[in-house]
Design brief:
This protein is of the alpha+beta class and 639 residues long. 49% of the residues lie in helices and 16% in strands.
Length: 639
């Protein structure tokens, strides 16, 4: 299982397009935060450069979600632990930092045009199938990412790609190498095997109580009884609280007068524009820019001579989002457009047209059709929204106060009946649970993650503070609590013995397989020796390395090249093979040479794969060398 999961991902993840990670997390609701304390917390320092915890956490979450989505129930916490995804994610970011440092040392640079092209290609910033700069700015603003910060991450992505190219550019694969690889991958083997299964040996295994008690003593964690809590909790929903707490007209007016700034309408501009972009694939970038500027200046002359701005925008603008509506951008305030564009638009008067403006997207001309000065919305326009918000705030405060007052009373109450009566008098709904663990998802206090954290943090007899959720407010008392503990042997003896029998049966199966392999290697006839153990000899049938798995056995063969190196002189696989709970002794039965008639059809894909593997190996070696020379400090407690 673990092998198959690893193989589904790249065999080695070397670098990461971090800007793409940022964009993905924008829509997962986990974009980078600008919290100063968080930014200053590093998970590692690479040659003096900090790797922020937020970057590590974002990448680690993406790795977890990838495997959970791909493998669903098969991907467990135990599998994640064995894969060591935390260090894997950190290694990716360390590799990235080292690559960027090496790019700087080698003088690798990124052109502004490359950064612009990369940004325009990101789907998150498109509208109606084309890049839309307003969407770009809005998405970044909504997630507290400045354009400069995002564009720097794009630049770093391109840099890592460019410096990687310097490492792999001279690598090639010869036809002889391809032919040899083809023969190795497509030649087939048929293996004889004897399989030992612990399940078949269970009936012959006996376990005494003394052995069971000793096993429980050393393996207590496998039998731990989880924490169990019996709880009383009371709840008041915001909807119920709203009926008892409503905002008055005086409340609405007072809020409006105190918070007039919230209802201010900033200065706004209604404008059209025409964009002319330099040809992105031009051999001479400077000439392309000059041509674009000249084209726009000619358009401006025609508009001044009487041509309609909207008609010229439809015909000539390279902004597909606005061109079809005559360059109309609608109304916008400050902070939406990129700086040079915004400054010009707000400096123009109503009816004025700008000259040529250069931005990172190309050359623009702007026509301001209307301007609105800062103003404030009237109370009559906003009173409904104010009332709605005040009603919610009052309901929330009423619910929290009611739960808090009840909680204070519950501290001294000894019986559930007392607490039920007090809850009823306070207008809260009361519930008493049976003892439950954190695995009992049917219990509301467990299914709600916030409530689960609170209730399992309480001591017996302790009352929680008021707990606010999306629906309402809870107050909880732990009536009884039994901490996690290893049970008495008498209570779990059957389970202990069953587990110990399985363990012994598995160990016995492995030992028998190892003994059989030793005998066969020593010259004994495999079939005769296996029969003496009550095991039949079977065959896998012919299979090749390219198939990926050993037929009938199910073991992954991609990382076991020795399976295909067996010969008549050395026919036995050198060790017992474990797969799916069984232990196998393997012997070469027959081989079949690769069918060379299929070589030509597979030559180019195989060549590409071999080249990719060579490149991966070269990049791995390069990064390994960079790591040996770097000073890397990892803060394990931050992982």
């Amino acid at each position: 299982m673990l092998e198959s999961i690893r193989k589904r991902r790249n065999s080695i993840v070397i670098l990461v397009a971090f800007a793409a990670i940022i964009v993905v997390f924008i829509f997962w609701g986990a974009g980078p935060s600008n919290n100063d304390n968080q930014n200053k917390t590093a998970v590692a320092i690479v040659d003096g450069v900090e790797i922020p915890v937020r970057e590590y956490a974002a990448l680690y979450k993406k790795e977890l979600d990838y495997y959970r989505t791909t493998f669903k129930g098969q991907f467990t916490e135990e599998v994640a632990r064995k894969m060591d995804l935390k260090h894997r994610s950190l290694d990716i970011l360390i590799n990235r930092a080292l690559a960027l440092k090496d790019a700087d040392a080698k003088g690798v640079k990124v052109a502004t045009e490359d950064i612009q092209a990369a940004i325009r290609s990101i789907p998150a910033f498109t509208k109606n199938g084309a890049f839309d700069k307003e969407t770009y700015i809005k998405v970044l603003n909504a997630n507290r990412i400045s354009p400069s910060e995002f564009e720097k991450s794009i630049e770093d992505d391109i840099l890592t790609g460019k410096v990687r190219e310097t490492v792999v550019k001279d690598l090639s694969v010869t036809d002889d190498e391809v032919k040899a690889a083809y023969k190795k991958e497509m030649s087939k083997v048929n293996l004889s095997y004897a399989a030992f299964d612990g399940d078949r040996l269970k009936s012959s295994i006996k376990v005494t109580d003394e052995e069971g008690q000793a096993f429980l003593k050393t393996n207590g964690s496998a039998f731990m009884v989880p924490v169990k809590i019996k709880a009383f909790y009371a709840f008041i929903g915001y909807k119920d609280a709203a009926a008892k707490a409503k905002a008055t007209d005086e409340d609405v007016k007072a809020f409006y007068e105190k918070n007039k700034d919230q209802f201010a309408l900033p200065e706004r501009v209604k404008a059209r524009h025409i964009l002319v972009r330099p040809a992105p694939d031009a051999a001479d970038a400077e000439k392309a820019k000059a041509d674009a500027r000249a084209k726009l200046e000619d358009i401006i002359k025609k508009i001044k001579a009487g041509a309609k701005f909207a008609d010229m925008a439809k015909k000539h603008s390279d902004d597909p989002g606005s061109a079809k509506v005559g360059g109309d951008l609608g109304e916008f305030g400050r902070g939406v457009m990129i700086k040079p564009f915004e400054e010009t638009a707000f400096a123009l008067k109503k009816g004025e047209m700008s000259g040529t403006i250069e931005t990172e997207f190309g050359y623009h001309v702007i026509l301001v059709e209307d301007k609105k000065d800062p103003s404030a919305r009237a109370l009559s326009e906003v009173s409904a929204d104010i009332r709605k918000n005040l009603n919610f705030d009052k309901a929330r405060s009423f619910a929290k106060d009611s739960a808090s007052l009840l909680g204070a009373k519950m501290k001294d109450m000894k019986t559930v009946e007392e607490m039920k009566k007090a809850a009823s008098e306070a207008g809260l709904k009361a519930t008493v649970t049976e003892p439950f663990s954190d695995a009992d998802k049917r219990i509301e206090l467990v299914s709600n993650e916030m409530l689960r954290d609170v209730v399992f943090g309480l001591r017996a007899g302790e009352v929680s503070p008021a707990v606010e959720t999306h629906e309402g407010v809870y107050v909880i008392k732990a009536v009884e609590k039994v901490d996690s503990h290893v049970p008495e042997y008498k209570d779990v003896s059957a389970r202990v013995k069953a587990m110990l029998i399985l363990k012994k049966a598995d160990e016995t199966a492995k030992k028998k397989a190892e003994e059989l392999l030793a005998k066969a290697k020593g010259g004994a006839d495999l079939a005769v020796a296996a029969k003496a153990e009550g095991v039949a000899i079977e065959e896998t049938g012919l299979f090749s390395k390219s198939q990926g798995f050993v037929p009938k056995i199910g073991a992954f063969s991609g990382d076991k090249p020795a399976l295909f190196d067996l010969t008549d002189a050395a026919p036995y696989y050198p060790e017992v093979l474990e797969a799916n709970g069984r232990y196998y002794v393997l012997k070469l039965k027959a081989t079949k040479e690769a069918d060379e008639t299929a070589f030509e059809s597979m030559k180019e894909p195989l060549k590409a794969r071999l080249k990719a593997q060579k490149q991966e190996d070269a990049v791995s070696a390069w990064l390994k060398d960079l790591r040996t020379k770097a000073k890397i400090k990892v803060f394990e407690d931050m992982l």
